[in-house]
Amino acid sequence: MTFDEFAVVVVPFPFTDKPAVTRRPALVVSSRAYNDRHARRVLAMITSARQSA
Questions:
Q1: Fewest Cβ atoms nearer than 10 Å: which of 13, 18, 30, 41?
Q2: What is the DSSP letter of 20?
Q3: Are the CB atoms for 13 and 19 separated by under 8 Å?
Q4: Measured distance CA(1)–CA(49) in Å, rounded
């Protein structure tokens, strides 16, 4: 599949403490050239959770 940079996609994200996964939105941060050259995508998880300080 081909994804453009800054596209929002839905992907399965694993839990760190459970064997289950959940489908979550993510932002494609790698360029199409990188994706095509490496057959990988760099994604950033989109969340509404606040980071604790």
A1: 18
A2: -
A3: no
A4: 29
Q: Which residues pair with 21 in a beta bridge?
A: 14
pLDDT band, very low/low/confident/very high, at 53 (cuts 50, 70, 90): low
Query: Could you tell me which of 34, 26, 24 has the C-alpha nearest to residue 8?
Result: 26
Q: Which residue has the tokens 């459970």?
A: 18
In Å, what is the CA distance from 39 to each residue of 9, 30, 46?
16, 11, 22
Dihedral pair phi/psi, residue 34, rounded to 5°? -65, -45
Sequence ranges of the domains in the chain:
8-45
pLDDT confidence bin for 52, thresholds 50/70/90: low
Look-up of token digits 């800054």: 6
